[in-house]
Amino acid sequence: MTSAHGHNQSSPADVDRKFQRDWLRQLLLRHAHRHPAMPPDLRDTALVVAPMVDASDLPYRLLARRYNANLCFTPMIHAKMFVEKPGYRRKFWKQGTPAEDRPLIAQFCGHDKDVLLAAMRIVEGGVDGVDVNCGCPQGIAKRGRYGAFLMEEEGGDRIVDIVRHLSSNLSVPVSVKLRILPTGIEDSLALYERLVDAGASMLTIHGRNRHQKQMATGDADWDAIRRVVELVGRRVPVLANGGISNMDDVRRCLEATGADGVMSSEAILEYPPLFTETNVESTNYRRTGPGRLRMAVDYLDLCKVHPPNDGGQGSGLKCIRAHLHRFLHADMQRHTSLRDAVVKTFTMEGADKVINMAREIYDACEHDVGDEQLSWYVRHRVGRGDHDEGRGGEEEEDASDEEKKDASSQEDEECPCDVFGEVCADDGDY
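Given the sequence above, the corresponding structure tokens read:
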């Protein structure tokens, strides 16, 4: 069969693919019992937590999984540092992935196929897939030759060679998370098809190019994603990324694109139950003061069992502060004492004090501190050129002085994120 783009939807080589077209659907169905509140029509649809630096940590993933996130990505991992630096590796990986943290895909960035392979071999026994980051639009990704810039190296030959090398030597599916090329959708489609031919088992398409960031973000192009589905969707699963902030967006995106699932990053960070529809369970987490407090409490409880970035740089407290900032952002705008307490949180005991302070504020106020205009996520809506879903964190905000110093000393730099709550998603999207 020939697609609208003029290419065959399948090839004779597809019968010999290591992972057949329905591998993702079968994976989701094997784990469907973990999500009893999932709408029946979405049981085999991927509802995905995106890879985000210092944000899609283990305790956060476990929290999101309680509310229908049925596939999660690790934070973006720098392959070279993961292979060479034990401290950095411990930040992201422990042998023996908790059973409740599956299905899980580990995402890596890098430009050397052998280094990427070495990093992925460390984790392949404990994940359900590995992913190559071709989405990060930041300057540091350009200097490190990864992210969205990798798509353009050697006319796409480098990333195609990387995918061929990885898919030939790994026992788990290899996927790629991509943006649209600056030269347009036609060139992008040609590259996506080459990646599938090279052995990619899944594509995640962020419906923007690398120039669409900060004030120029604009709407995600779901029609472009639909064209990707039409081109390669008979051969591999395609996930849609961009413009997902609630379940209405989920269903609209699935209808518009025909994708196998949707991915959310910053919207789901502030509101982990994003993938739940209105029901008794999800109303416990409504966007109200008490609802936000409950999310923060549950996240901290999970941190005490599964410390984020345990044994790695910063021992996870930066990560915890950032999550508290997102959960309690609306309340912090009205109560500066709460904001000061979050800023000064450097221990788990300090985090518990923040929770107690927030609880006292709600008890004293006796009103819903639920003004959506004050939310961490919605604060980006004004002036971003988006319709109703807003924009994510400032993907190119300055890192702290310490992070800049650390980054400048690395041959290949780790993607930085702001010291206080401004997430660096792998694409800085939502």
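The first helix runs from residue 23 to 30. Try to locate this feature in the token string yourself.
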